[in-house]
Write a structure and sequence with these properties.
- The protein is built from 20 helices and 31 strands.
- It starts with a strand and ends in a 6-residue tail after the last strand.
- It is globular.
- It binds adenosine-5'-diphosphate and zinc ion (ZN).
- The site of zinc ion has 8 residues, from loops.
Length: about 725
């Protein structure tokens, strides 16, 4: 034996395990290895030197070293850092970085299927779907094909046997297009040029790039990417909703002559494998992805862009709970590379970081070209009342009619899926509630179902009230987009209407098609949820009606007003981006609120000042730190006993206070009862140390679970 090393395994483990190095192997940290674990062989990464905690004669030996490049040092330090900060098992963090086990296997050609002779077997609905899935796409592996066609592997195998499908071998590695940094970009405005000049030296550190939607931020960070490519290094762009950014991709391709590598949940297994390897080998030069792309093992990352940095979608809420924007800043710091945070509506956190000198600030003051900001008008719903059981005020209806008469395009925005958020029985008052969660079931009328938006529970709309058995007594309360669409159909029967919600959009292909219908003006009136707010450029849009601006403001969410501003500003920004001026009408019951006034005046700075003051006084982030501890279990009594025991054990520490335990607002979720503590710390005190001390020696009997959320964004 030649000594020992510790090997980290991508399972929910808090430490690396020691293994013996067999004769003939020489290992360095970062090497991928196969090791025995119980009766299995698992893949892991050499993490360090090992210690003497396990006696030498008990050590098991490493089985093999895998023939792929080692995981770079900075990736490993990043994994250490994230695990420590987020208080997550380090093996779970490694797992995010090794999410494609296939990519570790020796490369061999991949067996895939293309359409063979469709007439060589009987046609059925499911076989039709399999063929359709291959129609204008690339060959797919059995697994990907079955998934795309919602069929089984058996169906695919049978079709192959009959000759309806034909096997093809795909190379294990495909050359990635090389974005060409030498291509000429557009001539930049003065402000853009100044921003580019500031970014181009690629000085380490964080820059907040602020500018209204359409001010040309994307063009600016494209130039930073070009500089990074010229330096021969890789660049990463994090976007909140990658699945919907076909427009972004085609812009990138126009600028650089090749598509970037993509990383998001819609990729096929083969695409994942090829991309993961290309990132590790340094062949994928630019990666655009959702938050998990941050954990890819970049060979030589030289730049990170976080676009729409204020988006709460960057917060991962299950598994390892982390804020990808904040972790991108950490990743940049560890690698000593620049990080650019871009937004039209920067988060308060980033704004304060600029004020306190931690981040650099670059601003693009105007919209590119002559496009003007839309005018924003508030509609006071207390005076300008919609009809009973209707949601559009007379002024908004008038504005839509004017827009349609003028050949313009309009959006009605309501950020609520389904038909109605609450269904109750008019006879007995019974409310239809989720059996697993403390929430109402949302009616979806198209699918005739009641759905829980938290756990996915759904049932057919019942005929009779389950409490009083009376039939035909259900009343829908409140509006969702489907109900709004119904109202719009009555009011504007001649308009070509389109509903855009995650329920109608489905996958990225469908999304691209629907967006195309809007940009090519095949529809007049769009009724949609926040899905319409993200990054699309709608050249014909001249009116945006916000149906319920107060919707996001209820509840105890720290960032409710901030998020409302960001979302509504973004929705408003869809209007009048090209030559035509746009206008935005915002329906609210409380027009005096600072957030509504800020929207009207396009004055985010004034609004953020008020928010900042409130949070400073309350000692809330970013002026203090928060961590949420949620204890859950299937037995309410056991949860209660546990949180009482915890409360009694909470250590005393200067600058830390513990709020709770209290039933979480979602007191039951997916059948589990939940109680919550909030740990509130002064800014200079880290909650992690306090929590570690608190949890030491605590037992978690039965199915009790603890979820730790550092810097929580969701307070449910
Ligand atoms: P943002 O990212 O701030 O929303 P974009 O970079 O998307 O802004 O720019 C908005 C629009 O203006 C886009 O259609 C873009 O192609 C165009 N644009 C931006 N800068 C320039 C430029 N320097 N020359 C020509 N067109 C530009
Ligand atoms: Zn539920």
């Amino acid at each position: 034996m030649l000594g020992r090393v510790s090997v980290l395994i991508p399972l929910a483990l808090f430490t690396a395990y020691d293994y013996a190095i067999p004769e003939g192997l020489s290992l360095v940290p970062g090497d991928f290895v196969a090791v025995p674990l119980g009766r299995r062989t698992v893949m892991g990464v050499v993490w360090g030197a090992g210690d003497d905690s396990v006696p030498a004669e008990k050590l098991r030996a490493i089985e093999a070293q895998l023939e792929i490049p080692a995981m770079p040092e900075v990736s490993r330090r990043f994994i250490d850092w994230v695990a420590n900060y987020c208080m997550a098992p380090i093996g779970s963090v490694l797992r995010m970085a090794m999410s494609v086990p296939d990519a570790l296997e020796p490369e061999k050609p991949i067996k895939a299927w293309q359409i063979g002779n469709p007439d060589s077997g009987k046609m059925t609905a499911v076989r039709q779907r399999v063929l359709a899935a291959l129609e204008d796409g690339p060959p797919l592996t059995s697994g990907d094909l079955a998934r795309a066609a919602s069929s089984s592997l058996g169906v695919v195998a049978e079709m192959a046997r009959l000759g309806m499908l034909q096997a093809v071998a795909l190379p294990a590695r495909r050359p990635f297009g090389r974005p060409d940094a030498g291509r000429e970009g557009p001539a930049l405005s003065k402000a853009q040029q100044e921003a580019v000049d500031a970014l181009r030296p690629l000085t380490p550190g964080v820059t907040l790039l602020n500018g209204v939607t359409g001010s040309g931020k994307t063009e600016v960070y494209f130039e930073a990417i070009a500089a990074c490519l010229r330096a021969g290094r890789q660049a990463l762009v994090l976007l909140p909703e990658i699945a919907l950014s076909a427009q972004w991709l085609s812009r990138f391709e126009d600028r650089f002559g090749a598509a970037p590598a993509q990383w998001h949940s819609e990729l096929t297994q083969v695409e994942r494998r090829v991309t993961w390897r290309a990132v590790l080998d340094g062949e994928a030069k630019v990666v655009v992805g959702a938050r998990s792309a941050l954990f890819l093992p970049f060979a030589d990352l030289g730049l990170i862009i976080v676009d729409e940095e204020h988006e709460s979608a960057f917060k991962q809420e299950d598994g390892v709970i982390y804020q990808a924007r904040d972790m991108a800043v950490v990743r940049g710091h560890l690698a000593k590379i620049p990080v650019v945070l871009a937004s039209a509506t920067p988060s308060l956190e980033s704004t304060v970081n600029v004020e306190q000198g931690r981040y650099r600030f670059l601003e693009l003051p105007d919209r590119h070209g002559d496009a003007e900001l839309p005018t924003v008008t508030l509609i006071d719903l207390r005076r300008d009342k919609p009809e009973r059981q209707q949601w559009l005020s007379p002024s908004l209806i008038r504005a839509v009619n004017e827009t349609l008469a003028d050949q313009g395009q309009a959006i009605l925005f309501l950020n609520r899926r389904g038909y109605a958020p609450l269904t109750l029985c008019r006879d007995c008052g019974h409310r239809m509630q989720c059996p697993n969660c403390t929430t109402w079931l949302v009616e979806h009328r198209y699918s005739q179902r009641l759905q829980c938006h938290h756990c996915g529970y759904q049932i057919q709309m019942p005929k009779a009230c389950p409490a009083c058995q009376h039939e035909g007594t259900f009343a829908a309360c409140g509006p969702g987009v489907e109900r709004l669409a119904e109202e719009a159909a009555t009011l504007f029967p001649n308009a070509r209407r389109l509903i855009l919600t995650s329920d109608t959009v489905g996958g990225p292909k469908k999304a691209t098609e629907l967006i195309r219908m809007v940009t090519e003006r095949e529809v007049d009136l769009i009724i949609g949820t926040q899905i319409i707010a993200k990054g699309h450029h709608f050249p014909h849009l001249t009116l945006v009606g916000v149906v319920d601006a107060d919707l996001g403001l209820s509840g105890g969410d720290l960032r409710a007003a901030e998020r409302t501003y960001q979302l509504l500003h973004q929705v408003a920004g869809r209007a009048g981006r090209a030559e035509r001026a746009g206008r935005v009408l915002v329906q609210t019951y409380d027009p005096a609120r600072p957030v509504m006034q800020a929207l009207k005046d396009h004055d985010q700075a004034a609004f953020l000042k008020i928010e900042e003051e409130d949070r400073r006084i309350a000692g809330m982030p970013p002026f203090g730190r928060l961590a949420a501890l949620v204890v859950s279990g299937s037995n309410d009594g056991a949860v209660e006993t546990q949180v009482r025991a915890m409360a009694a054990k909470a250590p005393r520490m200067e600058g830390v206070s513990v709020l709770g335990p209290a039933p979480a607002p979602l007191a039951m979720l997916r059948g589990r009862h939940r109680r919550r503590f909030l740990v509130k710390c002064r800014r200079d005190v880290a909650p992690q140390g306090f929590i570690r001390q608190w949890l030491r020696g605590l037992k978690w009997p039965g199915d009790l679970r603890l979820q730790i959320d550092i810097d929580p964004y969701s307070f449910l």
